[in-house]
Amino acid sequence: MNEKEAFGLGLRRLRLIQGIPQQVFLPVVSLSYASVVERGKKLAALDTIGGMAAVLGLHPLTLVAAMYTEMEDVGFDDLIEGLQNDVTRLASLPLSEGVGKDARNRAEDVADAVQWLNKRGKLKKTSATKAPAKKPGARSSSKKQGASDVEGATPAEPSKGTLGTV
Fold it and tell me: What is the pTM of this model?
């Protein structure tokens, strides 16, 4: 299963388990585009993923996590455990001054986001046993943000920050 198909399947499942019709996406995208994304024919851009997550009352990371649980046949709990291990490992790496501080700040942001999702029950616990596969070199960039921004976010207003840049 590729990323487009996995994202679409995860998005559809998260929408359906909440009993929400596809029309909920109308403030963000057209119904035809929502359908194309859910069928795995297109992968939404990050800003669109954020908007779709917001109307579902979810954090954008939940949609991305759902994609990886579908693609790698892992549960949310295993995926989050892998993320926490990555964050811990990256935060402990000795990096040059400035770079290390930024990496640790981003690692703290990710850890805070994971805690935020767990506290609000946004991560469904499953009994999957397969460990998450690591994707080396996967990076994105965005603006710097403090950990308090993530803690104060609400599902309807997902935080924007460095969560994907660790």
Answer: 0.56
